[in-house]
Amino acid sequence: MNKHTLFRDISRDTKNSYALKRNERIVFFMQDRSGELVFHMDAPGAEAYVFAILSGSGTSVSSLRITSIHSAPDTFSRAIIRGIADDVSAITYNGLIRIEPGAVRSDASQEIRSLILSPEASVSSQPALEILEEDVHCNHSATLSPLNDAERFFIETRGVSENQAKQLLIKGFINDIFFQISDIASPDAIKTLGHVTSAN
Q: Are the C-beta atoms of 53 and 76 separated by less than 8 Å?
């Protein structure tokens, strides 16, 4: 069955709960949103793709929790988060995938990758699973790393300043999100994100 894909930028949305209908596919995007968000796959065939960018600078402190709840069979969810922490900022991400009894053949994952740009910045990532059904596929991952010095040095040998090389690597790290959105939704979806400078 060919599904129509909806795209929603929820960066400034005030809702914290989203329920998907039968055979509905929605791509959600958010930038620098804090709080707790819950995505409900309540009907068969529901598909949710959740993309989030978390950026910290100065003394900022941000916290995001994403919960994906599967309560119907043949449902799907992906949460892909990119975090960037600079200066003395702190970012906290908590993720949960919950598979309810009866939600057979659910497929769910959460992935967070973070860049630390300062020795005084911090990122805490805690993805978790609650699986109450057997016939499912679930996974989660979390990685944390500084900028790649070898890649930065290579860019600098091309006549680019150290700061410009740093910004190019950060942009490449973030743009991975937009490439994935384009693959799932459409390139036109990216054009609606005028407030996200790294999308250009």
A: no
